[in-house]
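Reminder to self: tokens first, then the designed residues, so the page reads top to bottom the way the pipeline ran.
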């Protein structure tokens, strides 16, 4: 079992944003003063508009047009900045760090959302954070030592607990985009954490389906799907005492793997120490298999589906969905008209063949 230091070292950036250092045992974070000439941040920088044709909120965040775009390695804002003049992380070194996004889609706090009568925008309250997995600019999550990866999981868990308890936040979403093919503009290994003021459309649909399943069968949808995948076995990639990874029966993406705990929990906060350790191991295992699929690193998206312990979200089952748009060594899957306009996915590969390939790439 990994030894974890859970209390982060806290600091402030020049414009008042929060900065949190998570350190491995025996390491001590030593932030320096952020001396950049940043103007105090406006607590409200974006807006929400309600799309009545779909019943969904859309975030309008025009300030993101000015965000940092593919800087040279020696100007990376996520590398340590010991002078306090060059980086979002003013420190000589760090293990894992979390800070408020300088160009957030959501910011500030507020009350529950109310759908306006007309075309009135409403403040896009919420929280957007950046999490840097390592100070190593050229590394990746898959290359982290197990103890270091476990520290990232602990940082996710800490931020989930903090944000899920914040008034006005309905959903906490930890995620990673890896690879320029996905649209990443900073190559330093990092992810993001969003605190949404509403349930995202995908989550709302999944909970609706889970509610209907409960009415019809008297059981949890996700638990039943997991049991059926395990019983079938053809799409299971790896299974341990506490976790199962599999390619879902109706996979949308060319490479898609879901990781489920073998018992129903709502979020990372609900996992015990042994489960957190094993989750770290199977998560690393799948990412390492991804990187063995082709001659270069696999571009991917990682999405941690978490739910609040509330009546509205009680059927939610914590799991991770890992997805890649690479459909072969030389081709990408683009979300064209059918997927983007109609949300009707077309897959070029069978889930069973992808699962078999990933099993072959195992340790």
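Designed residues (363 positions):
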């Amino acid at each position: 079992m990994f030894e974890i230091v859970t209390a982060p070292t806290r600091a402030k950036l020049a414009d008042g944003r929060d900065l949190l250092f998570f350190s491995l045992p025996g390491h001590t974070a030593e932030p320096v003063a952020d001396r950049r000439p940043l103007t105090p941040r406006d607590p409200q920088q974006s807006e929400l508009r309600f799309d009545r044709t779909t019943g969904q909120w859309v975030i309008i965040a025009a300030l993101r047009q000015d965000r940092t775009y593919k800087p040279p390695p020696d100007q990376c804002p996520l590398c340590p900045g010991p002078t306090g003049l060059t980086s979002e992380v003013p420190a000589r070194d760090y293990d894992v760090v979390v800070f408020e996004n300088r160009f957030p889609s959501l910011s500030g706090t507020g009350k529950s959302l109310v759908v306006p009568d007309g075309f009135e925008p409403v403040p896009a309250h919420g929280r957007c954070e950046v999490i840097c997995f390592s100070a190593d600019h050229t590394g990746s999550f898959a290359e982290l030592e197990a103890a270091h990866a476990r520290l990232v999981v602990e940082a996710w868990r800490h931020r989930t607990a903090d944000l899920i308890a914040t008034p006005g936040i309905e959903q906490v979403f930890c995620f990673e985009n890896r690879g320029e093919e996905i649209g990443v503009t900073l190559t330093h290994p990092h992810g993001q954490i969003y605190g949404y003021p509403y349930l995202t459309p995908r989550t709302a649909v999944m909970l609706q389906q889970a509610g209907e399943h409960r009415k019809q069968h008297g059981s949890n949808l996700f638990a039943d799907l997991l049991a059926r995948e395990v019983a079938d076995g053809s799409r299971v990639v790896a299974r341990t005492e506490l976790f199962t990874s599999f390619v879902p029966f109706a996979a949308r993406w060319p490479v898609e793997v879901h990781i489920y705990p073998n018992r129903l929990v709502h979020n990372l906060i609900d996992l015990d120490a042994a489960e957190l350790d094993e989750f770290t191991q199977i998560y690393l295992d799948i990412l390492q298999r991804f990187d063995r699929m082709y001659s270069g690193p696999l571009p991917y998206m990682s999405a941690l589906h978490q739910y609040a312990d509330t009546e509205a979200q009680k059927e939610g089952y914590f799991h991770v969905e890992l997805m890649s748009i690479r459909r072969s060594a030389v081709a990408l899957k683009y979300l064209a008209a059918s997927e983007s306009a109609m949300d009707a996915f077309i897959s070029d590969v069978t889930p069973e063949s992808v699962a078999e390939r990933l099993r072959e790439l195992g340790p």
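The helical segments are 146-164, 201-217, 221-232, 273-291, 337-342, 351-360.
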